[in-house]
Amino acid sequence: MRKLLVSAVVMLGLAAAQQAEVRVAVAANLRDVFIDIVRAFNQDNANIKVTPSFGSSGGFVQQITQGAPFDVFMAADTSFPQALERNNLTEPGTLRVYAKGRLALLIPNRVGLSPSSLSVLLDPKIARIAISNPETAPYGRTAIEALQRAGLLEKLRSKLVFGQDISQATQLILAAADAGFTAYSLTFTASVKGQGKVWVVPERLAPPLEQAYVIIKGRNRPEVKALYDYIQGDKARTILKAFGYQVP
């Protein structure tokens, strides 16, 4: 009996040691959708552990440049992974667009306004407008550009409050601000759905954000390639579409 127990413990230890790990830097707008993708991926790849970190795309570029041990970078646009590519920090030929995201205006139910244009932000009921940091978060940059195109940026600048990334900005909208810009995909998540009125900003003001991912230089191991390929597959694409993304 003791021999059987020892053998079982040894086998479990070997299985744990053999479980490969993939570390992924993931843009904050992908938090819930990426968790669903990993759950589906692990149904077919139980021997691969996927460890995500969520944050702003610009912040991850700084971390990766400084040597952070990520294997894959899933950004909220194309410019940040392209910056890594220009600095020879990515595996050649692995930068690809995996989805297109939309910018949305979100007004909490407690405010009592239903948006149909950006002009609603001029309403006296709206004193604080939350967006993500435009220097490091693509959705924040797109929000600023949308306000500029609508001729409203200078009129609304004093109302702007900033979150570090799109996830934090969305939390600000629901908890402390009166309106704000979020990723349309986040309005499908359990923590946001039904909490406010959502208006997708028209493409003439906010073109869809092409979101790209890439394998980091020297990290093209079999388990990394397995996840990379899975993200291009039908199951992952179906999950992305369920969260409001357009897929190529």
Automatic annotation (TrEMBL):
Residues annotated as signal peptide: 1-19
Organism: Allomeiothermus silvanus (strain ATCC 700542 / DSM 9946 / NBRC 106475 / NCIMB 13440 / VI-R2)
Name of protein: Molybdenum ABC transporter, periplasmic molybdate-binding protein
Family from the record: Belongs to the bacterial solute-binding protein ModA family.
Keyword Coiled coil listed: no
Keywords: Metal-binding, Molybdenum, Signal
InterPro entries hit by this protein: AvModA-like_subst-bd (IPR044084), ModA (IPR005950), ModA/WtpA (IPR050682)
Pfam families cross-referenced by the UniProt entry: SBP_bac_11
Lineage, broadest ranks: Bacteria, Thermotogati, Deinococcota, Deinococci, Thermales
Keyword Metal-binding: yes
Binding site for molybdate: 57, 166
Coiled-coil parts of chain: none
Gene Ontology MF annotations: metal ion binding; molybdate ion binding
UniProt xrefs under CDD domains: PBP2_AvModA
Example GO biological process: molybdate ion transport
